[in-house]
Amino acid sequence: MSKIATRDAYGKALAALALENKNVVAVDADLSGSTKTAELKKVAPERHFNVGIAESNLVGISAGLACNGKIPYCSTFAIFASGRAYDQVRNTVAYGKLNVKICATHAGLTVGEDGATHQALEDIALMRAIPNMTVIQPCDGVETEQCIRAISEYYGPVYVRLGRSAVEVVNTDPDYKFEIGKGIVLHEGDKDVLMIASGMMVQQSLKAIEQLKEKGVNPTLINIHTIKPLDEDLIVKYAKDAKYIVSLEEHNVYGGLGSAVAECLAKHCPRKQIFIGTQDTFGESGKPDLLLEKYGLSADKIVERVLNECK
Amino acid sequence: MEKLKKIANNMRINIVKMVHANKSGHPGGALSCADILTALYFEVMDINKDNLNDKARDKFVLSKGHGSAGIYAVLAEKGFIPYEELPTFRAINSRLQGHPNMLDCPGVDISTGSLGQGLSVGVGMSLSNKLDGNDFRTYVLCGDGEIQEGQIWEAAMSAAHYNLDNLLLIIDYNGLQIDGTNDEVMNVRPLGEKFKAFGWHTISVDGHDIESIIAGCNHAKTIKGKPTVIIAETVKGKGVSYMENKAGWHGKAPSDEELAIALEELGGNN
After folding, report:
1. Measured between alpha carbons, how far is A269 from A173 in angstroms, rounded to an integer?
2. Between A and B, how many residue pairs show a Cβ–Cβ distance under 8 A?
């Protein structure tokens, strides 16, 4: 399987989109080499605005560009987009339902060595709680490329959560089609255990399923790229026949995908749920794979929890 | 000019009535910017019913969103909203929210309320106009206390960096904020020098002399290669004797008796 970081796929998709749509602009805060908006700069330098180390201004300028008809792709690290600029995102962008695409990279533990101050583990919770906001976390390069295009055709604020580390492409179906708000059944296994994952946890889940099958457990896996609005129909359809729900996210178990799934199922068909994610803790420095292991998000740790708790 | 003065006075009458109607609002800062709004909406900006819904045109950002009674008063004078709607200010189900909501109220170019954010929006609008090669201009009104917010200086730096000569910032310099004078709470002086150091052209005007405000705005149009700030010296609560220069009238509604006095002074009893 080929590997590409979702941020790299973002840069590539953004540059291609900019060539087709002259209203597409990029706004960055001194991280264009890391967020990959520099790719747009290569093809349309006059439509790339680097505002320096000023994330509040980054979001405000993006809002102003959107007011006048531009489609700003506003990028910085997830920790700054959702944290430092929260007030600007809430009050200026979302309240006015402005057409700003906040494409935040370096989300989650897999930022790695930069450590806790740079590992956004509550950004989905923050963004999901804001009215008018759509929240998307693509899992691989293919999904990211289509997502970046799809959100340009949707009017309104969007938060896209992207990762730093390279991840395997799992959406290898040539007919793959990204639709905002539509989950994807990636593996049809047995009905008892239903895994619901987002972002890079999709790859970890697929690896875990391979190991679980050897132990006689074959869960079904749904990839939820759009966390808000959540594909409740698909989740309920599969949850109805399941005994256990396992939610998997590279995010605090409070307020993210697991919470969104639990809110949905509490309304429509309550089930026992195993919440895999960081357990209300900050991260730390380290290699991404070692961090996933330590914080219980690796395939091995997923297998352990499924075997221990789904019985 | 007499016509403009009359409009500004009528706005002041409506501002005190609005704040009185539901016993809520910010009269001091709305009254201090009434002449500035009159100059902008009736002389400086090209904004009318025909272009109101255009994505790009001359735009106004009320960065000091608590001056909402002022913007609603001027939108009513322009005929964008009916006078009859003004008494719904801050009441439930009203389009006239406590702080302006662009989705509700026609003529509000951006929702504001959380201070310090409007200048960045103005920078974005101006960048868009530059990109499109049009001549539209963006006008941002900030309070003097508001510039204590750090984001203002991020935006000031970027406006100069991008040579935004199509952006005009007006500071409603009434010297007062909620807890007292700027000088007591957090000194903002020297205002002009600060902006000069950030690469801006600066102009000072009497913020209650409509002719001077218009002249300042027109002069700003001739300044090329850099943004301009007009420091408009104003009086908080201007036009209502007992509100003038009183920080306590930042966010307080007049009683029935106080309203009567205000209307008497403004000639609004008939």
Report:
1. 31
2. 114
Residue with tokens 């009458």: B13
Could you list the active site residues of A?
A: 55
Query: Residue B26: which CATH number?
Result: 3.40.50.970
How confident is residue B270, by pLDDT bands cut at 50, 70 and 90? low
- Quickly count: other Cβ atoms within 10 Å of residue A248's Cβ: 27
As given in the structure block, the two tokens for residue B152 are 């203002």
Q: List the domains of chain A with CATH numbers.
A: 3-168 (3.40.50.970), 184-309 (3.40.50.920)
Beta bridge partners of B202: B229
Q: Which residues contact A276 (CB under 8 A, 6 or more apart)?
A: A201, A246, A247, A248, A249, A253, A258, A296, A297, A301, A302, A305
Whether A65 and B124 lie within 8 Å, measured CB to CB: yes
Taking CA–CA distances from A25, the nearest residue in chain B reads: B128
A92 CB neighbours in chain B (<8 A) are 110-112, 114, 117, 120-121
CA angle B123, B124, B127 (to 5 degrees): 85
**B190 preceded by a cis bond (ω within 30 of 0):** yes
Evaluate if residue B78 carries a pLDDT over 90. yes
Smallest CA-to-CA distance from A81 within A118, A114, A134, A131 is with A118
The reply to whether B71 touches chain A by the CB within 8 Å rule is: no
Q: What is the mean pLDDT of residues A132-154?
A: 98
Distance in angstroms (rounded) separating the CA atoms of residues B227 and A174: 51
Residues of A in contact with B131 (CB under 8 A): 25, 46-47, 70
Task: Determine whether the interchain pair B124/A63 forms a contact, defined as Cβ–Cβ distance below 8 Å.
Answer: yes
Q: Do B124 and A88 touch (CB under 8 A)?
A: no
State the pTM of this model.
0.97
**How many domains are there within chain B?**
1
Which domain does B100 fall in, by range? 2-266
User: What is the mean predicted confidence (pLDDT) over A167-180?
Assistant: 96
Judge if ipTM > 0.85: yes
Res B268: pLDDT: 85
